[in-house]
Amino acid sequence: MPNCDNCHNKWNWKQTIKITTTLNPVMTCPYCGGKQYQTQKSKTKIGFLTTIVLLPLLLQPFFDIPGAFLLSLFPILAVIVILLYPFLMELSSKEEYINFSNDK
Ligand SMILES: [Zn+2]
Predict the structure, then answer these.
(1) 10-65 per-position pLDDT tens digit
(2) Domains in the chain: boundaries
(3) Which residues have a beta carbon within 5 Å of ligand 1, which is an ion?
(4) What's the 39 CA to ligand 1 centre distance in angstroms?
(5) Measured in angstroms, how far is the CA atom of residue 35 from the centroid of ligand 1?
(6) What pLDDT does residue 5 have?
(7) What are phi and psi of 86, to 5 degrees?
(8) pLDDT at residue number 47
(9) How confident is the model at residue 98 (pLDDT cuts 50, 70, 90)?
């Protein structure tokens, strides 16, 4: 579960879900009201986690999985991702950008 980088309070699962589902990249800590951003490292981890949802689609051409089974699998995998992602959340007080160029 994420720790606030500002006041070091741990956000619980419910708070994390509530804060992240606003889709605002600027998250407000429920304890100190400070602005928090998800770290780049944590974004990458959660990115990998969400690909799990797409996994049946990737495997389908190889294993000939029935469509009805795939459809029933999506909500289950989506729930698993939602349950797990707060554990991978890491917070920073500073917004991080991916630096594509090495220019200084
Ligand atoms: Zn805080």
Answers:
(1) 999 999 999 988 878 899 999 999 999 999 999 999 999 988 888 888 888 888 88
(2) 13-92
(3) 4, 6-7, 29, 31-32, 34
(4) 15
(5) 8
(6) 96
(7) -60, -25
(8) 93
(9) low
Rounded to whole angstroms, the maximal C-alpha distance in the chain is 52
Distance of CA 13 to the CA centre of its chain: 12
d(CA 74, CA 51): 12
- Residue 80 CA, ligand 1 centroid: distance in Å: 27
Q: For the chain, how many residues are written?
A: 104
Q: Separation of 42 CA from ligand 1 center, angstroms?
A: 18
Q: What's the CA-to-centroid distance between 103 and ligand 1, angstroms?
A: 34
Which strands form 27-28's sheet, in the order they lie side by side? 27-28, 35-38, 91-92
Stretch 70-94: mean pLDDT: 92
Instruction: Tokens for 65, please give them.
Output: 């999985």
44's tokens: 């990458």
Asked if pLDDT for residue 100 goes beyond 70, the answer is: no
